[in-house]
Amino acid sequence: MIGEFAAYQILIFLFASILILRTFLLYLKKTKSIRELFLALFIWGSFGALGIFPQLSGLIAKITGFQLGINAIYVGSTIFLIYSLIKVLIQNDRIENSITKLVRQQAINDFKNKYLK
Amino acid sequence: MQKKQQDKIYIVIPAFNEAAVLPDVIKGIKKEGFKNIIVVDDGSSDNTFEIARYYKCLPLKHLINRGKGAATQTGLDVARLMRARVVVTIDGDGQHDPKDIKNLVAPLLRNETDVVLGCRIMKRPQMPLGRIVINKLANLLIHALYGIYVSDSQSGFRAYNARANSLINTTMDRYEFESEVLLQIKNAKLKYREVPIKVKYTKYSKNKYIGMINAQSQNLTNGLNMFLKMMIKSLFS
Q1: Which residues 6+ apart lie within 8 Å of A48 measured at CB?
Q2: Measured between beta carbons, which residues in chain A are less than 8 angstroms from residue B78?
Q3: Cα(A59)–Cα(B157) distance, rounded to whole angstroms?
Q4: What gap in Å lies between CA A108 and CA B73, rounded to an integer?
Q5: How confident is the model at residue B232 (pLDDT cuts 50, 70, 90)?
């Protein structure tokens, strides 16, 4: 315990703060959009807030109709994980498509230079 | 078929490590009178590319392997550049009989249709029973997902006229390509026709197919994979 917080609560808060700060810096460098900044603020902000004030999960459970706060956290985390997984898959697909485009374009350019000039 | 017509027909062979059989495939096609052969070497580690050059084909090389779909689309793009009137895609592993090219091309030259799909005869003993069942299931799946019924949804032996080739532009790199083409045929309202083709299941082609993991279920997963990818893309991209 550090003051009235357990060590894990401080760690969660620090972790969330670092990620928010990182996204903010990336936003300033214009490598992240405002939408991504707000998304990071919402997700990591909620994560950090739940770390510092675990009783918030009870409030969320009350609002969403879950019987226990822990259930709300489980369901929310599962949805978030599935969403993240899908985002990773899409990103991976995009990268694969970009590689294919480059490889195909390069092959066609070589062909044009050799046979169509 | 007149020579003038044959000059406007291009044959696309996507090839990945096919050096062992590619010479026979090329010779077979040339024997049928087709001289414009585009070989797309899809990042092979053997001398597929050199063989294509040696036999005076139009060779292209993908620096790294991107899959049959990507290689075929490259070939189709080049055929478009060459102002092909008809493009035929044929597998590089020697399972298709070049003698069937004329049957595929004929309806296109008569302007009766936009696309001709080569359909393997799904009867024993020409095809193993397991493969017949899986192919039929794949056809039903494609029908249920895309609303287009063909008797061989996964055949790579197909022919397109210039209009179809200009409208079809696929994004799937691997074997889902065949299913994506069917979807684009439907979306672009292209006319299509099916023509029976012969398939030679050689030891080479069988081994290669088995090497691609889970050969029997591949046709089914292709259609499903493509559907899932498209659904995820449209919902979350």
Answers
A1: A12, A13, A15, A16, A17, A20
A2: 108, 111
A3: 62
A4: 11
A5: low
- For residue A67, report the phi and psi dihedrals to the nearest 5 degrees: -75, -35
Domain ranges of chain A: 1-54, 70-117
| φ, ψ (nearest 5 deg) of residue A23 | -65, -40
pLDDT value for B216: 46
Gap between the Cα atoms of A102 and A83, Å rounded: 29
Contact (CB<8Å) A100/B60: no
ipTM score for this prediction: 0.84
Give chain B's length. Answer: 237
Computed from CA positions of residues B81, B85, B90, B92, in that sequence, does the dihedral angle turn out positive or negative?
A: negative
- Nearest CA to B157 out of B109, B205, B126, B196 is that of B196
Tokens read off for B233: 């893309």
In B, residues 46-85, which contact A (CB 8 Å cutoff)? 58, 60-64, 66-67, 70, 73-74, 77-78, 81
Would you say B158 and B116 are in contact if contact means Cβ atoms under 8 Å apart?
A: yes
Which tens digit of pLDDT belongs to each residue from A53-89?
A: 888 888 877 887 777 777 777 777 887 888 788 788 8
Residue B196: what are its φ and ψ, rounded to 5°?
Answer: -70, 140
pLDDT in tens, B185-210: 999 999 999 999 998 877 676 666 55
